[in-house]
Amino acid sequence: MLLAQNTYAQLPPVFAGDKRAVQKEETVRTYLSPTKILWQSTTDAANIKNAARLLKTGDGQANLSGKDLCILQNTATAKASLLLDFGRELHGGLQLVTDQSRGGKPIRVRIRFGESASEAMSNIDTVKGATNDHAMRDFEISLPWLGKLEVGNTGFRFVRIDLLGDNAELKLKEARAIFIFRDIPYLGSFKSSDTLLNKIWMTGAYTVHLNMQDYLWDGIKRDRLVWVGDMHPETSTIAAVFGNSNVVPKSLDLARDITPLPEYMNGMISYSMWWLLIQHDWYMHNGDLKYLQQQKPYMIALLNLYLKQIDDNNSEALKDGTRFLDWPSSTDPKAIHAGLQGMLAMTLDAGAELSTILGDPTTAAKCKAAVARLKKNVPDPGKSKQAAALLGLSGLMPADKANAVLSAGGVHDYSTFFGYYMLMAKAKAGDYQGSIDAIKDYWGPMLSLGATSFWEDFNIDWLPNASRIDELVPAGKKDIHGDYGAFCYKGFRHSLSHGWASGPTPWLTQYVLGVNVMAPGCKVLKIEPHLGNLTYAEGTFPTPLGIVKIKNTKLANGKVKIDVQAPKGIMIIKSVN
């Protein structure tokens, strides 16, 4: 069950009077055996015996039976190694249960975690970007005689185990993944006549679930940090799938408390804007006025900081922080300016609403006046889909004009972070089928390459002759993980489980299932589905008042029939186009 914020462990009675506050983690641990031995250094039984034993369900307990063991043995020239596949992306570590070793001495092994098979086979180097950044994923350890060791805390699917030393022997009873996650139900759901869309929705949900650790991270291997801008797609996914979760306010408050004004969160001008936008969306979903009121001093001061940074030409003049939208647009100053102009208008629009709710009409009026000024100056987004999306969503650029930029070249120049806003901007222009196609054409290929969670970035130009992440790269093929990537995510440093990539999940819930929150706390929901070429879409949506069930069915005449079951206290408005 989800624990309340700031709960603490219940200690045994011997700790009575101990003044230490012992924080209890909000996650659980479960143990999973591998699904496959993907590779082994040799099939010679003199070096590796009974490897399949590791695929059996374990109990985590060493014993004296000496039976049914996987035995790895090195000679002076042949070294024993195994590559284990745990079936899907996980967060956690590895539990190793050993038998008796020769001489009762510890046995040295090398452990390599990988989000792809090729990463688990790689070395830390400067060639393909394999690192130990944020989390140790490649190291040597000693295993106990007749005991158990738990090691690692990272994102992974694959683990390579190498026995070290000449003439060494390791008798291994179990090698199980330690899966660390929040034990929370998937209250939201989505099912349609398109099985690929259904799988994409669930993969986005699972990607965010993996990153809902004690705080809301962006990546479970790398970027195990609270990146506030990256959180916006994640918090949208959480609202659509899990409903209220304390990981959101806990992470928002951490960012606020470590960022005294006039500093910007994570050092990025746009990330404090995302904090304001998340506060708005989170309040609309959960209706927690008490929590929102706690943000008032910081929020109003932050809005006034932004209000001061509009010049005489009605242009954003934001400074004293990194000017950033996302990585693929980071080398285009004109696109960044156009995007920040649109994003500032979105932020101040939300700020006007929040200020009104918080009883500050003066700030609300200033925000509205500033948005009117910003709309008088509409920068050219050029070919930047990031900038066009923000200009379209803010209302600075006509939606159809923004969509023309977004539609050029299909899903070329999409990014996994800003792809969410590209989809929303296309929907604002009424291009729902175009959005559905983009989801399948951009997020779908990651699944076809073996992904079980969505990646930090993806480029469809990587597809030709690319290998899957769940196989060793065949001769003549490109390594989709090791050979590609850019900026801070080159090669194996590239995170293959990044929460900011989950945008299709809330998009499908809002625009295909049709759920639009019209009043704080979901007390008014507008159900307005856009099925495109789908014949039906059904699912559930979590609210503070309970679960809403929706089924949209396309009739023979092309009309859509909407069936809704909602808890008492929720007004449902049906809208069929």
TrEMBL record:
SUPFAM superfamilies named among the record's database cross-references: Six-hairpin glycosidases
Annotated transmembrane regions: none
Top-level division of the source organism's lineage: Bacteria
Gene3D superfamilies the UniProt entry points to: 1.50.10.10, Maltose phosphorylase, domain 3
Alpha-L-rhamnosidase six-hairpin glycosidase domain location: 187-377
One BP term from GO: carbohydrate metabolic process
Matching InterPro entries: 6-hairpin_glycosidase_sf, 6hp_glycosidase-like_sf, Bac_rhamnosid6H
Descriptive protein name: Alpha-L-rhamnosidase
Organism, scientific name: Mucilaginibacter pedocola
Lineage: Bacteria, Pseudomonadati, Bacteroidota, Sphingobacteriia, Sphingobacteriales
